[in-house]
Amino acid sequence: MTQIDLGIEAGSPQILEKLKKQTTPEIIRKQVALAKKHVKAFGFFMIGIPGETEADVLQTFELAKDLNLDRWSWSIYSPLPGSELYDELAAEGKVQTQNLDYTQIHFTEAYEGVSNVPPARLKELYREINDYFCQRAGETGVTAGAN
């Protein structure tokens, strides 16, 4: 069966707006339900986005649980040069361009000063979310995405 990969990213209306996704959680629900009638649906999610709170992370987690996706993948936002969010962080002094070793960026690490969620808590949330979906995958036979 054919699969569609969906860059859902977030479940918080505020974060979806910040990412300029031009959608809402309600529209995402409808789009995923429609897609699942025809193909397998793989959702990509990201936490630790600049300005994101723990409540925003939990909204994303709840949306992901509700979507009944066939596969999913979670990552932690990493500030990458060339993106609008990176430029905003650099302008705010939250990332020092000369201090970032781009060969060491990994989408499972939390960076200080990027999200409103402290890095240690963000890592805990990341583990809890991945543990939930890995357990669910084992129970349902659904395949978890690579992280």
Features:
147 residues; alpha/beta; Transcription Regulator spoIIAA; 5 helices
Short description:
The protein is an alpha/beta fold and 147 residues long. The protein has 5 helices and 3 strands, in the order E-H-H-E-H-E-H-H.
Furnish the topology, listing elements before pairings.
Layout: E1 3-9, H1 13-18, H2 25-36, E2 40-47, H3 54-67, E3 71-76, H4 84-91, H5 119-140
Structure in words:
This protein is of the alpha/beta class and 147 residues long. It has one domain: Transcription Regulator spoIIAA. It is 42% helix and 14% strand. The protein is built from 5 helices and 3 strands, in the order βααβαβαα. It has helices at residues 13-18, 25-36, 54-67, 84-91, 119-140; strands at residues 3-9, 40-47, 71-76. Strands 1-2-3 form a 3-stranded parallel β-sheet. Helix 3 (54-67) runs parallel beside helix 5. It is globular, with a radius of gyration of 16 Å. The relative contact order is 0.17. The mean pLDDT is 87.
Order of helices and strands: EHHEHEHH
Amount of helix: 40-55%
CATH domain topology: Transcription Regulator spoIIAA
> What is the count of DSSP helices, taking H or I runs of 4+ residues?
5
The main pleated sheet reads as: 3 strands, parallel
